[in-house]
Every structure is written in C-alpha cells, then in structure tokens.
Inverse folding.
C-alpha cells in the first residue's frame, strides 16, 4: 500500500480545494493518504477528510495591506517565506523517515520535496506576473521559480496543454527557461457537473481570499445585496468553531454543500482565482469576477476571460451590484463542460505510482 503525502499551500483555499480530487483518486487506488499543511487550507481538508492523518507544517501566513500595493507587501515578506521553505523541507525529511512515505505531491510548497522519493510540484503559475512598475524583474522571478521547481521529480499543471483550451493562459506557459518534466493533467475541481437543476437563487456570492480585502469585499457587496430584492446566498469563506448558517448564507460549506448552492444559482459572484475558474468551468456557470486588488494573477485571469466574453469582471472599488448584473447579461459563462478532464489526472497518477 503506497503512502502519499499531499501538501497544499496556505495562501487562500484554492490550493487545498484542487487537491480534493487528487485525494479521492489516490484513495480509490488503495493508497494511504497523509496531508501536511497549515491555516484554513488544512482545516478545510480536515473537514473534507476527517479520517485521514494530518500534519502541521510551517505556515507562510502572508500579511496583506488595505491600501498598499500587494506586491510590495509580499516582497517585504520574502525573508520570512525563505525561512518557511527551509523549515518545511526539514519537516518533510523527518516525516518521510518516520512514516515511510513513498511519494509527495506539493501544491506550490517549494520546500516539500526529497531526493529520496518521487516528488511532484503542482502549479498553474510557471510564469509569475509582476505589476507594471516591476515588469523589468519578471525574467529573473521566472528563472528563480523554475529553478526551485526543478528540484522536484515532475511538475503537474492543472490545465490543458492546448493553447486554445487553456484556462490559465500565459500563466502556465513554460517556454524560455525550459522545464523538461512538465505534465498537463487537465483542470482540477472538487465539483461535478449536474444538469437541469431549477434555480433557487438569483445569485451566490463567495467571499474568499486574504484579509483584510476579503472582509472589504464582503462589506461592499453585502450592503448592496440587502436592498436589492434578489434571492441570494452568501458564503463568507471564514472558518470558525460555530459555522453559522441560515437561508441567506453560511460562514463556510463543505464541497457537497457548496456545489448544491452554486448549482441552484443563476449567477456566481467570486474572486478570479484559478481554482474558481476551474470550478466554474466544470459547473458550466455564469459568473462575475472581482479580482483581489493588487493580485496580478487574479487581475490577469479576470481580464483574460472578460476579453473572451465569458465572464464580466470589475475592480473591487468600482463594484456596483445593479450595474454589474446588467453588464453581465452579455457574457456567456462556460458553454461547454469537459467531463473527461479527469483522464489527465488518472494517467498522471498511474505513471507516478509505477515509479516506486
């Protein structure tokens, strides 16, 4: 029985949610799955898989600003992140020895690799985008990123290889500094497409992402929702010991509950994180994307899908509910749903598990 350690990054919940289908596939194959992580992403997986074994790893715990450019705030924390990578690498070596782990699958945790066993690095960001004022440093950032990824046995990209089908666009392109161990495994979502569900809500709002911007987003939208006359449901994306829930909202929902609510809605308002894009693609839902201010990846994805006529998007400080609902009517959402996307993951897991 193979032992596989899954280690999602703790920046938001998306890294954890896209590990859920991987965990299910490993369990189907009779593997023993262990999970290492920190923060809310670890709590989310404990809620989804209460019977699995969990380890707490060093936390990145990035701190964000209410007004300062996010990139500068992150740059100031680089020494802390380097130390976290060093610590988690030490922790991983100890876990491998103590628990006889056979494989590691790391979602964007750069220190979770070992020369002793096959180690997978999963990411959709081979190309990390910088704001306009720092475009000159992008080539260096990409070289460092790819050098760190090369420490792993292989790199999985949760997207299609074909440019015309790609959900992440230029974020996952790996020309330039070549990586020769890249495998595209197709989009990953914890959800499954369901047909012919009668709408219960006009819209569902998912307020996720880092504080304080998450709370600022919630306050701005909620105030407008209350006077809108719409049927709506709000997911606050906040973990607490008492998960408050009523007919109009919940602090958080597990995968089954969240899929039910989203499937019953006509429209979704959410951040434009890549995991959200994958979820909306699988569910075939229409949406309005509001990127986290200063987060270049989300700003790029929101702009990409707006230009394609799929999702309307708007900056957080310009959000006006009545206006965005009207504008969104001319956007299609994802018209086709690829139910065979999981074949890429299945093939990648088969190949990985044969390696030892």
């Amino acid at each position: 029985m193979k032992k596989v350690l899954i280690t999602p990054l703790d920046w938001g919940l998306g890294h954890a949610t896209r590990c859920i289908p991987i965990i299910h596939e490993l369990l189907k194959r009779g593997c023993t799955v262990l999970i290492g992580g920190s923060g809310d992403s670890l709590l989310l997986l404990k809620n989804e898989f209460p019977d699995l074994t969990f380890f707490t790893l060093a936390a990145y715990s990035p701190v964000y600003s209410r007004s300062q450019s996010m990139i500068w705030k992150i740059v100031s924390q680089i020494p802390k992140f380097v130390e976290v990578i060093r610590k988690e690498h030490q922790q991983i070596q100890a876990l491998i020895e103590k628990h006889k782990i056979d494989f590691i699958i790391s979602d964007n945790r750069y220190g979770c690799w070992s020369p002793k066993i096959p180690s997978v690095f999963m990411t959709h960001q081979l190309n990390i985008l910088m704001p306009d004022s720092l475009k000159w440093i992008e080539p260096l950032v990409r070289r460092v990123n790819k050098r760190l990824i090369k420490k792993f046995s292989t790199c999985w990209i949760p997207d299609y290889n074909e440019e015309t089908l790609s959900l992440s666009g230029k974020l996952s392109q790996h020309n330039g500094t070549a990586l020769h161990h890249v495998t595209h495994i197709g989009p990953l979502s914890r959800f499954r497409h369901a047909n012919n569900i009668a709408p219960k809500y006009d819209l569902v709002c998912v307020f996720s992402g880092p504080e304080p911007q998450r709370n600022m987003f919630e306050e701005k939208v909620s105030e407008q929702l209350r006077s809108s006359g719409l049927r709506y449901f709000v997911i606050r994306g906040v973990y607490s010991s008492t998960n408050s829930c009523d007919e109009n909202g919940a602090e958080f929902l597990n995968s089954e509950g969240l899929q039910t609510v989203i499937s019953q809605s006509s429209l979704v308002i959410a951040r434009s994180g890549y995991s959200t894009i994958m979820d909306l693609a699988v569910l075939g839902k229409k949406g309005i994307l509001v990127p986290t201010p200063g987060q270049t990846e989300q700003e790029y994805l929101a702009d990409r899908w707006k230009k394609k006529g799929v999702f309307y998007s708007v900056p957080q400080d310009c959000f006006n509910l009545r206006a965005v609902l009207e504008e969104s009517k001319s956007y299609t959402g994802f018209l086709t749903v690829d139910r065979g996307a999981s074949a890429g993951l299945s093939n990648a897991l088969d190949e990985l598990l044969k390696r030892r």
